[in-house]
Amino acid sequence: MTISEKVAYLKGLAEGLNLDTEKSKEGKLISVMIGIMEELAMSVEDLEENALNLGEEIDVLSDDLADVEEVVFDEDDDDMEDYDDDWFEVECPTCGADIVVDDEALADGEVECPGCGTRYAMELSDDDEEEAGETPED
Predict the structure, then answer these.
(1) Residue 34 · residue 14 · CB < 8 Å
(2) What are the pLDDT digits (tens) for 108-125?
(3) Which position has the higher pLDDT, 16 or 121?
(4) Nearest 5 degrees, angle CA 98-CA 114-CA 122?
(5) Is 65 strand, coil or helix?
(6) I need a surface site. Which of 42, 115, 118, 135 has the fewest CB within 10 A?
(7) How far apart are alpha carbons 24 and 28 in whole angstroms?
(8) What is the pTM of this model?
(9) CA atoms within 13 A on the CB side of 2
(10) Cross-strand pairs, 90
């Protein structure tokens, strides 16, 4: 039973008692209280309906956002699948292109810029080894 139905039932009970709402103070009080309850019940039902509508709109937006996330983040994932987890990017000082430096480039000792073809020597200094958690040999 909804709130409006309960208030309507209460109103019917009050009318069945044949309360004098004109002269009796109690009758006036009960009549006003039932009127307020009717207004509250209508407001609550409107709020519930709005909440359901908003929930449906949020579901639609959530689905749309999931589609957008799939497009945006899957592209990045596809581009990075070729690289190991142990890599980083640096900017080429000549052309500004991104150069991927991975374990293989560090082992080779040099890396080539994909944009301009310039080759750069890669060398780990003692400071870099200490930052990476390795201790330099004496």
Answers:
(1) yes
(2) 788 888 889 888 887 666
(3) 16
(4) 70
(5) helix
(6) 135
(7) 6
(8) 0.44
(9) 13
(10) 99
